[in-house]
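Sequence, please.
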């Protein structure tokens, strides 16, 4: 007689356990999706968020009115009597710039700090009777304003007699690297230019030794070169990335200084096994160094550059060269301020914030924490919309609708991926009121589409993801109005 009773008891217990299990499943907060490798490092993420970095080319070329010094310049010509690095930092601060990179040594070999390994430096200059140190003043001024610093140390040295004697020269270069990275702390980026003397192409630079030493001395630094290892060159000096631009690439296919890699580094590689995002270097003026006869680019040119660099998943490295007095010229400072203010004007208002945002599905359902509202907050890395992974049709989309049947007025579309979990999207399409207007490839940290033609007045915008390496994870979207672009059209 005890048997049926026991079976019944067992049955009830199992039912209760199952019920408990399903309740606890329901109560579980869904976990974030797995990343798609490769991933950025912490320092690369910090770098990406800077968006614009300031480059400063300064040295004997500033005084000899040249771009590539011969190395035979007398150090006495270097005399910036009104040098004021606080003014440099102030200009950067006003432009919302958080990192400044200075040419501690350019191809002419003249050093802006008192290196103990050469006399061809500020020591032999007229400036401050040879007692000055531009790099130190630069670091102090930037640090005072909470701006980070970076250093450019040209491997090509047209002055030093050791250049061309591989062992001797590489030791000399490495000694200067150590000197700089020991003396000036918290350097956030170091710039290795691949240029070589055209008549001495067989000269070897021991990049592996140099990079190893750099990381040993300052591990959170980002090393820039044609081939990284942390930041890659974009392949041109116009500040323009490829329309398709992956932060991923195969480093083994790259060699520093090779002219054959420029198109590969311009676009990156969806199959790349290394996270190596691109930096777009360009000067605010025609030359890298200051020349009296030159003037800054127009605001519209700078905005074009912004859309082609920051708007294509890259960081813009904009050169603003100090003049012979040792100051950033008034017209450059003014243009830079205008540039920042234009960017703020364009992106200050996000029309999507006052619209309805609908999505194809959301991970973990309504309360899962991966809803469309995450695309409208200020966290552009770790707060993101994630669709369900089990969507059979793989049909992932976002729609932005004007409220109360109102129309959306914009001419710029912004989309950002949650790159902390990898760069995923390979193909997407954008429709305005059902009409296809954009067929896009990569997105990455930030993708900006400035629309051709006049301003759009639409009921809804649909972004459809066609192909991706995993489910799309979108950290931010925006519809913006660029009045500077609009003004290029004759109003009707
Ligand atoms: C180039 C150099 O030759 C230019 O003078 C400049 O420094 C630019 C940023 O990199 O390779």
């Amino acid at each position: 007689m005890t048997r049926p009773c026991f079976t019944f008891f067992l049955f009830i217990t199992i039912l209760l356990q199952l019920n408990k299990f399903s309740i606890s499943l329901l109560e579980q907060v869904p976990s974030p999706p797995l990343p798609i490798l490769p991933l950025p490092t912490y320092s690369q993420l910090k770098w990406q968020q800077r968006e614009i970095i300031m480059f400063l080319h300064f040295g004997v070329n500033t005084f000899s009115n040249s771009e590539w010094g011969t190395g035979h310049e007398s150090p006495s010509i270097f005399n910036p009597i009104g040098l004021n690095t606080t003014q440099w930092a102030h200009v950067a601060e006003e432009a919302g710039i958080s990192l400044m990179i200075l040419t501690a040594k350019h191809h002419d070999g003249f050093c802006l700090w008192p290196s103990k390994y050469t006399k061809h430096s500020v020591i032999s200059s007229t400036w401050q009777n040879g007692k000055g140190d531009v790099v130190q003043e630069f670091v102090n001024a930037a640090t005072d304003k909470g701006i980070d610093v970076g250093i450019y140390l040209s491997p090509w040295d047209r002055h030093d007699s050791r250049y061309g004697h591989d062992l001797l020269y590489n030791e000399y270069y490495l000694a200067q690297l150590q000197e700089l990275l020991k003396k000036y702390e918290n350097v956030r980026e170091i710039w290795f230019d691949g240029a070589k003397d055209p008549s001495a192409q067989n000269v070897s630079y021991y990049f592996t030794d140099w990079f190893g030493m750099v990381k040993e001395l300052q591990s959170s630094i980002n090393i820039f070169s044609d081939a990284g290892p942390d930041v890659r060159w974009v392949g041109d000096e116009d500040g323009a990335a490829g329309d398709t631009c992956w932060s991923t690439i195969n480093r083994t296919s790259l060699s520093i200084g090779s002219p054959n890699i420029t198109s590969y580094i311009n676009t990156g590689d969806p199959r790349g096994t290394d996270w190596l995002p691109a930096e777009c270097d360009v000067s605010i003026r025609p030359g890298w160094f200051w020349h009296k006869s030159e003037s800054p680019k127009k605001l519209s040119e700078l905005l074009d550059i912004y859309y082609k660099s920051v708007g294509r998943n890259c960081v813009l490295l904009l050169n603003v060269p100090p003049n012979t007095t040792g100051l950033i010229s008034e017209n450059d400072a003014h243009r830079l301020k205008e540039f920042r203010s234009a960017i703020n004007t364009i992106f200050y208002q996000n029309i999507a914030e006052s619209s309805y945002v609908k999505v194809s599905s959301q991970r973990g359902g309504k309360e899962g924490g991966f809803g469309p509202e995450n695309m409208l907050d200020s966290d552009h890395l770790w707060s993101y919309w994630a669709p369900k992974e089990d969507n059979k049709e793989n049909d992932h989309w976002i729609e932005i609708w004007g409220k109360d049947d109102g129309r959306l007025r914009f001419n710029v579309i912004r989309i950002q991926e949650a790159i902390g979990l990898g760069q995923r999207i390979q193909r997407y399409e954008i429709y305005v009121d059902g009409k296809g207007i954009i067929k896009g490839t990569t997105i990455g940290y930030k993708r900006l589409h400035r629309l051709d033609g006049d301003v759009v007045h639409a009921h809804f915008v649909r972004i459809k993801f066609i192909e991706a390496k995993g489910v799309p994870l979108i950290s931010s979207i925006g519809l913006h109005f660029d009045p500077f672009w609009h003004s290029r059209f004759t109003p009707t």
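The pocket of beta-L-fucopyranose is lined by residues 67, 193, 195, 281, 288 (CB under 6 Å).
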